[in-house]
Amino acid sequence: MPWERSINVRSAMLRGLRGRCPHCGTGRLFYRYLKVSPVCEACGIDLDRYPSDDGPAYFTILLVGHLIIIPILLLPIVWQAPPAIIVPMVVVPLIALTLIILPRTKGAVIGLLYALKVHRDDAALHTADRPE
Ligand SMILES: [Zn+2]
Description:
mainly alpha
């Protein structure tokens, strides 16, 4: 395949993080919020062959859940303010942050899969999917 040249993992992940094709960096990676374009509009690479699966959700939970929620819980105001006020003040920004981070982590994971040349065809190598 012409797009199988090796690429820097960092570059591919940064391109995906920006929502761009990990191969050329110009075409859009997503045609809707989390829908990956079947092919890149700029270079024609098959973008649908890089299965990100649950990786983006895992990294989003890791970032939001562990690096944001835990520090918030350490703030005394969270425990002193009335729940009717503090819950919407915390939950709404967390939902917004999660929705902002999720497509970026998905792009970065697809960029990583692209750089490591992990395709949907390699699913048989995944130990969890291997038949007994
Ligand atoms: Zn491209």
